[in-house]
Amino acid sequence: MSPVSLFFVVLAYFGLLLGVAWWTSRNANNDSFFIGNKSSNWMLVAFGMVGTTLSGVTFISVPGAVGRDGFGYLQITLGYAIGYLTVAFVLLPLYYKLKLTSIYHYLDVRLGRRSYQSGAAFFILSRTLGATARLYLVVAILQATILDSLGVPFWLTNAIILAMILLYTYEGGVKTIVWTDTLQTTGMLLGLATCTIFLMHEMHLDLAGALAQMDARGLSKIITTDVDSPAYFWKQVLAGAAITIAMTGMDQEMMQKNISVKTLGGSQKNMVTLTLILIGVLASFLFLGGLLYLYAPQAGVTATGDKIFPAVVMGHLPAAVQMIFFIALVSALFPSADGAITALTSSFCIDILGLKRRDDLPEAQRVRIRHRVHLAFCALFLVMVMVFKWIDSASMIGVILKLAGYTYGPLLGLFAFGILSRRTVQDKWVPAIVLAGPVICALIDRYQDILFGSYRMGLELLIINGLLVMGGLFLISAPAQSEEVLAIN
């Protein structure tokens, strides 16, 4: 397809999103924006969260990484399943018991105001970095395949996309995103299925034949038994569980959709359903990656990593498949930013500005404040995507998981200390502790050759960071009356 045709496909898709936004944001207020009026359907939330969880990074980077890591990502996926079940049956009952709008209010109740603000601040940092890295990846592909040929500069592409996202999230917030995420997940899975089926047809392969060829090429290896390797099996499983607990269960963007479901049981059904769907979808993306690496040599494609999927589709597949790929790509783009901007706006308004506690402010003024914060985060996303363009990286999934190790570790440490211990902290020292954890991790990572010899750290950095923060909190804490803590937990 020509760049102009693909451009109109993107515009048509955005028009559909705006229609959904108009329908869902009628009579919306701050409760609609923050928690969807506690009326979200758990089945829609579960299906829509697949798109949010996967995003453009999974769509592009997971298939691209097969050439380097084989099916090793399944090790992390096993950890994801453990993590999601922990979120469903440990964290969600706690959040519903306390009737939270912001999950970081738990830290206020359990540890103190500084702990609460520290947790919210690290969420804002984590989600801003992670979401803008994801957004950059998809914007860069749109730029290279459509907009460069039309003479549109990267900064303008970035600005237009964020303006689009602003338009359909400005009023409805979570209430809108539950529905738009469902639409976007459908588009992404349609692209996955279409590209997989077409490549198998082109190479005259069935499932068994494809897996046999992948195995012969060394593309289907799953388990790594080298303890020193960053990809060692148990490192990946434990890190996958920790990543999910931190990046889902302790992340306001992901949890505000869960707690928008009316009942705890419905929210738990959502998490279990999400787990089952996600395992199947991630396995399918890895299978697609194997097909891409089988097809690329036949077609003379030399691209690898994040570039192989768009190179194969845009250079060698029919126009109809290209159109579906682009719908899927745009479907992967918007969940990278819409839910993140909404969640960041919610967290900043509730946790930092204390909007829910300001009984002196009329509703109209609260809405105006929320609008201004929403606009400010859109502007911040614009700047951060440009920063990632300057940095650039061959595999953005590696960058995102590395960032998560540093920024979600303090959240993991704070929540784990609150839930697992029966101690109270000296709250004024908590900001110093949560800052010290990532700094020490950076030093460990920098000098791991000296400290560990041939051993190489991987995703376990997140766990180490969380343990360091927990240890620091223990040092500034004292035993508490069990009854007080049990009443909270």
Structural account:
It is a single chain. 76% of the residues lie in helices and 1% in strands. It has one domain: Sodium/glucose cotransporter, CATH 1.20.1730. The chain contains 23 helices and 2 strands. Strands 1-2 form a two-stranded antiparallel sheet. Helix 3 runs parallel beside helix 13, helix 7 packs across helix 17 and helix 13 packs across helix 14. The protein has 489 residues and is an all-alpha fold. The mean pLDDT is 83.
Brief overview, please?
This protein has 23 helices and two strands. It has helices at residues 3-24, 30-35, 42-64, 66-69, 73-97, 105-110, 113-147, 154-169, 174-202, 207-216, 233-249, 252-258, 264-299, 308-316, 319-333, 338-352, 363-391, 396-407, 409-420, 430-446, 448-452, 461-475, 482-488, and strands spanning 423-425, 477-479. The longest helix is centred in the middle third of the chain and has 36 residues, at 264-299.
Q: Which percent band covers the strand fraction?
A: under 5%
Strand order, main sheet: write it out. Answer: 1-2
Distance between the termini: 56 Å
**What best-fitting shape do the alpha-carbon axes yield?**
globular
Kindly report the name of the CATH homologous superfamily.
Answer: Sodium/glucose cotransporter
CATH architecture descriptor name: Up-down Bundle
What is the string of helix and strand elements?
Answer: HHHHHHHHHHHHHHHHHHHEHHHEH
Overall tally of domains: 1
Number-wise, the strands total: 2
What are the segments in which pLDDT stays under 50 over at least 5 consecutive residues? Answer: none
Note the total helix count.
23
What is the averaged pLDDT score?
Answer: 83
Which radius of gyration do the C-alpha atoms yield? Answer: 22 Å
Reported for the largest beta sheet, the result is: 2 strands, antiparallel
Looking at the structure, the CATH topology is Sodium/glucose cotransporter
Helix-and-strand structural type: mainly alpha
Helix content: over 70%
Oligomer: single chain
